[in-house]
Amino acid sequence: xxxxxxxxxxxxxxxxxxxxxxxxxxxxxxxxxxxxxxxxxxxxxxxxxxxxxxxxxxxxxxxxxxxxxxxxxxxxxxxxxxxxxxxxxxxxxxxxxxxxxxxxxxxxxxxxxxxxxxxxxxxxxxxxxxxxxxxxxxxxxxxxxxxxxxxxxxxxxxxxxxxxxxxxxxxxxxxxxxxxxxxxxxxxxxxxxxxxxxxxxxxxxxxxxxxxxxxxxxxxxxxxxxxxxxxxxxxxxxxxxxxxxxxxxxxxxxxxxxxxxxxxxxxxxxxxxxxxxxxxxxxxxxxxxxxxxxxxxxxxxxxxxxxxxxxxxxxxxxxxxxxxxxxxxxxxxxxxxxxxxxxxxxxxxxxxxxxxxxxxxxxxxxxxxxxxxxxxxxxxxxxxxxxxxxxxxxxxxxxxxxxxxxxxxxxxxxxxxxxxxxxxxxxxxxxxxxxxxxxxxxxxxxxxxxxxxxxxxxxxxxxxxxxxxxxxx
Length: 473
Description:
Structural class: alpha/beta
CATH architecture: Alpha-Beta Barrel
Distance between the termini: 22 Å
CATH topology: TIM Barrel
Largest sheet: 8 strands, mixed
CATH superfamily: Metal-dependent hydrolases
Order of helices and strands: HHEEEEEEHEEEHHHEHEHEHEHHHEEE
């Protein structure tokens, strides 16, 4: 959605761990430099040829963890009863029955509980529209030109946003932070590990590709209609085409002679044409999504996901055939004309098609705290029209499919051996209204524990605030 300066302030909730409290709370993992590592001044020194603003994220050292006797949703469509999950060296070591671990392992009784991969939100504005929602924090829309591909969301992210910790309490371990949707091309998004940090680079998911945020429909023409355009949908499309023509020309010239001056805007657009940067498009109507697919064919690039897409159900077959994900709300609709034809079965119908890639996203600092319940609403709405969706399928909407859309499925999103130990232990079925994330692990480290106050993150910003710390609200 288009964010404005008059964004309502959210209720204060716990955020990332305060660096100042790390020693006092004995979390052992607050800093990203584990004992024995070289100091940051050495390890974070730029290397010649290194990508700009490279990740400095370091997994937190943790002993092995063995969760036993739980119902396990692996994230790839499987459900295992009374199963064990072994986390070791920051990775998923094994999932199965009768697993064993060394004497140094932390043992967690999972009987009566459920285990899933860490949840992933592909559309978040945490950090660029943080809480409190003051104009001083409105850093998501560079609404100075219809095409601002040169800006990067990570350069606006405020790591102290209390929303990060609240999302962690809801089981979210990975999230993509995107610019807003005022522009035809809003800039690059960034994928983050949901860990406490002083800098955004300490949160940046190593090796995750950038996303490119684009927007079609009402927002760009509303924002720019009175200041030079575009003022119509046809103006929108002409703007995309002109931008990509320039990017093609720039790429061709750079291929012949890379010694010339860099153009940050065209560099990003050329990266999208090459497939190095994944294209995410805010788009509601089916006809406009079809036009954007045609645009992608004209310039030979691939759309990774349409976001919001309240009419995605109308072209579910085409989305599946072209390998495009639908990152969608469970039931938001009707708040503007292009959102008028939404239905509550949207995600279920996108998911039902063979090879469909349905994703539940939040676009909300509150909704991100309950992605599991958003998915549960989809299941309930599908049930009312006779479509039964099992938990082991639904969990893919916030794990496997989301990881695919972010280009990190080889590293997270399912509980396959060798992948990052991003894991949530739930007190019961995660699609129950009574479900809570009891423990949340990122790369094998227990960063949130509902029953341990010392493992409930608090940002520096929240220190001294008269609020009750705890789980997601």
